[in-house]
């Protein structure tokens, strides 16, 4: 209960000279509480085996605390401060308090204030007995010139009283307060140990975010029992995560705890009864005779009653089926309030019915993977590998799986570079058995052979990522259960789905893919007797030597991986009677060095089980007419030499005419440049849904062959430049007039006002419209949803398109003869995307006469459009407007601000654009790069996170930029780039832009975020506490680097460009070297950012990464007290993708700085914002219709302003500006 007041700062070197010895330090006023409350609390903590330091000296000697007390405070994990009536009358207590708060600041010590018999406001404001005590202290220390010390005491009392604590008046009797304190300390200690035990944390790379999320789910609704599921693929870290959470919580408020590991194995080995009794024994601590009363699936009422009265925590690890879970928890769903069950599993179906929340564990990010791998690959005595490329290859192989990283790291430990390279080559073919065996458990758990077959198809025959629709189409043979099979694979984490993607993208982890390929490889030694073939070299041998057998079901042959031309045997497929999938493809059909040839042609031996047939660069002029393709679902012949599908117009002899290709749903003949015609598909393939004829440049006619396909939804005619029907339409002058008038009705009203000779001309044209062979009367299939007409020779939009009520996507980009769009385009009520890029003759965008409720994307980049109409406000759902390189546009319509959903506006290269109208409120991305006539940016919207104004050489000013403070989580990228804007005025350059640069950094502290900021200037912002001229800097590391106060890391340079740079890119490289005391600590951190620089100006460049984006080693560098920053530039040639050095002749780094961002910076930013509020009051009154009631534009760190904790941030408005640092 004493404290030093002369030297309150703790030297950094002292940080490394002590270890935490005590769990708790008790600070109290002896005469008030020693023999009552403090003693009771000490005994209760001791009973829970919480090691507590309590000074047993009753007399205070001198004005300073003893070295023993000082050391005890530093060696404690948690300090409990018992504020009582006479606490402030003791200088020992006050000095002790100051020292405790120093330890909180420097080492992250947890501080818990207890207000015993005194109101917190008395402590905070020093009223009552505290006011009397300080009057005496001021009188006493005034004579000693110690008023500065008195100020420190006052500040310490205010700070401590604002911390979250407990008030004795809220607990009666007093024993309940003691019990609550012990529970809280028991809960805090495991968390403290996890965060402060550096060796432990170093082995838990990338897990902290997961722990926080799980604990937040566990704490929801504390009055009820909850089941939380942890779901993920094998080796992803589910058990580790559950173990850490269990360790943190098991010694806290729970009365019984149990961790059942390997439930799947134990259940199979010993049965449910053994596991159930083990669980109950650990939870209830009851004897064997009572346990006999319990049976699986029927709970004993006696045991159930005991469970209902006891708050328990249980972890059921690796549960494989609902039956296992039911056997363990059936009858115990009504546990005592506050009880928690954590279940880990690879099968989400286990959790769907019972879990309150399910948390999916994702793989490690690359930087975390590298960290974990290094930890296991480089021990104390093994040298570090200096080949970054090789390191990245090994880490990439593991693809974020922690188990694989640990196994590979341990395997490669102490091995040479040559051995690493050899091992990596072998792993590509023969995966590590320990990894494969761990993953194979999930495959063997697929009891359905059909689902196992689907898994093997995907593992061997599919690319790394694919759409679900494509997989179902490719694998569905009509009577199979592919849809449910894929769902089961997703549930068991054997494939992953990205539900955020619109195309429902699926992906199989590389290690799972290898595991599946190993299963197939083990089927037979002979290649031709394996069910699936995917290795290019193996397939070459089989096709050349006719080695295939009836065992082969699927072939996936990537021709990009062959190193020679291959002559395919004429009868190569004759024995493959069970072939379902034949996929011969190229990564790039336009750049294939080697090809497959059929010198003797191809026998008609593709059997009727074939459902998927792809042959890129197919070498023959037609398909053999006797191919049996009655079950074919997809036909893909990209870049083929085919001239017609079959070498005669009649259908193959074995077809029933009405049957044709009844299963065919997708046909892709794109880039078949010799294809002249296609047959009438309405009879041959009536179920076609998608046809791709892109760049079939010899094709002259399409619509008659497809217009009766009522199931056709996707038609791609991009680049079919010889299509006659569109040429005929474009040549018809009367048709162009018809389109311009908006259709036949408007056209008739027009000709009524014209001469009869014009009417006669029109009548003749109408006659030609109905004449045989007229292309103008041909229509598109009525149910089209996607229509691509890019680069077609048309001058006007065919009116039949306007009748396509279900059309969702229309692409008419690069139609360079297109001169007009009909106003009836607004009739396309389902349209979501309209692309008119590089329609250079299109000078006017049509009036939008009616609201288009679904159009979200409009692209007019490079078009000849001179202006957009005010009626653009009728595009009420527009989210993205892309108008890059529209060199004739000078102004945008004022109604642009009415587009309330517009989030992205791309105007790069609009060289005549002079000003912008008021911008939409939801705009988050504004790109005006190289708008060289633009002089002023208007008020930027509140939520604008990306502003790219590079090379706006006339830009002079930005209006006051009011930032919206948002609670951003997840992945967040911020861009602020004014590179090359040399005319910016001083206020914009020195105040507005730097302020918002700092704001963008502080805004993103809760997210896995990145920020790259650039603007003209020669001063590093004051927030960079460590800065210097030149390219190097010595840094005294902040003490908070290793606790929750640390938020992120920012680098800054001032770059001077002296000479035009011959290449496009300049890379700014940062290296932070730690001065290590312990050689076992990582010693450096690298980062870089790139800019395009060709303007002779000084620029400030800032790069920021949140703590969640940084390697764990940086956050664990408690062994370092100093560091040095070295910055250098290099040049990047985009054409050859290489870095090189041009020296300082072209550009030079004049200054550098580094900023370790912490919570105090947020608070300081708040204070400065409040101070500047009066200066902005005029702006607020003018532009804010609903000024904030609190009048504060500030961040709100966690733990402050508790009265605002119930603010609903799930429904933000543009006036909500509160932000919490989590």
From TrEMBL:
InterPro entries: Apaf_helical, C-JID, Disease_R_plants, Leu-rich_rpt_3, LRR_dom_sf, NB-ARC, P-loop_NTPase, RPS4B/Roq1-like_LRR. Residues 20-189 form the TIR domain. SMART domains: TIR. Its EC number is 3.2.2.6. The keyword Glycoprotein does not apply. Residues 1183-1210 are annotated as: Disordered. It catalyses: NAD(+) + H2O = ADP-D-ribose + nicotinamide + H(+). This is ADP-ribosyl cyclase/cyclic ADP-ribose hydrolase. It comes from Ziziphus jujuba.
